[in-house]
Design goal:
Layout (H helix, E strand, L loop, with lengths): L4 H11 L21 H11 L4 E4 L3 E5 L6 E6 L2 E5 L5 E5 L11 H14 L9 E7 L2 E7 L1 E3 L11 H13 L6 H11 L1 H13 L13 E4 L4 E3 L8
Antiparallel strand pairs: 1-2, 2-3, 3-7, 4-5, 6-7, 8-9, 9-10
Length: about 230
């Protein structure tokens, strides 16, 4: 996977330094965000007018045509919450399933490398630790278009659909059946079975949050998971 280091560094320079308590208000709160999203985006747009920032529950994601086939992922290290008196307080993450319990991006990176060791990394987006800036890890990930934002032009074979239908009846899978059927066509039954076994026996987090925004397709049309750290807090 290749990418333009100079363009990525320029993007990162525009938004750093980031606050030490870097996160959003809990989804259960209606309060305004402690992070000034508008200022962050304005700083980014000055160096890359086509860039877009997505604010997830556990990370900030930067997408841009200028960096083409990759996205930048920067982890939040916690979130803010509103007390009964209306005050906003900070709480670090404690449950990221990796070596640093505050960093869901690192957990994803570590999961990718374990899958790679099992030769099952084709099912997830390639993820790399790019650099550390001011004690904040920055990750580069292969760009995957979520199912929510695209419609695959490839139709699964009838044979694959029949196999998946049986798996659904048996309760073997808990992920979109059309997506799994395309995995069967692309990667073969043996590899998909190994992947499902891995997810059901070794790492339950990978498919635990596999909704339509977290699974999708590479630019070449092959299926992959783009968010596989399973947010728990």
């Amino acid at each position: 996977m290749t990418f333009d280091h100079k363009k990525i560094d320029k993007i990162l320079e525009s938004i750093f330094p980031l606050p030490e308590e870097f996160g959003l208000v809990s989804y259960f709160s209606d309060s305004s965000e402690p992070i000034n999203k508008e200022l962050l985006m304005e700083a980014l747009f000055e160096v890359d007018p086509e860039a877009y920032i997505y604010f997830g529950a556990t990370k900030l994601v930067i997408l841009s045509p200028s960096i083409q086939n990759v996205v930048i992922k920067i982890p939040f290290n916690g979130s803010y919450f509103e007390d009964e008196d209306g005050s906003i307080n900070w709480s670090p993450f404690y449950w990221a399933p990796g070596s640093d319990r505050t960093d869901y991006c690192l957990a994803e990176y570590e999961k990718y490398n374990r899958l790679k060791a099992y030769r099952l990394d084709c099912f997830v987006a390639k993820t790399f630790l790019y650099k550390t800036i001011n004690n904040v890890r920055v990750f580069i990930q292969e760009k995957i278009i979520p199912c929510d934002d695209c419609c695959s032009e490839t139709i699964p074979s009838e044979r694959s659909r029949q196999i998946v239908s049986k798996w659904v009846e048996e309760g073997t899978i808990a992920v979109d059946s059309e997506w799994i059927a395309l995995c069967l066509d692309k990667y073969g039954k043996s590899k998909v079975e190994r992947f499902l076994w891995y997810c059901n026996n070794i790492d339950l987090d990978i498919l635990a949050d596999a909704h339509m925004s977290n699974i999708g397709y590479r630019l070449n049309g092959t299926p992959a998971i783009l968010d596989y750290a399973n947010f728990l807090d």
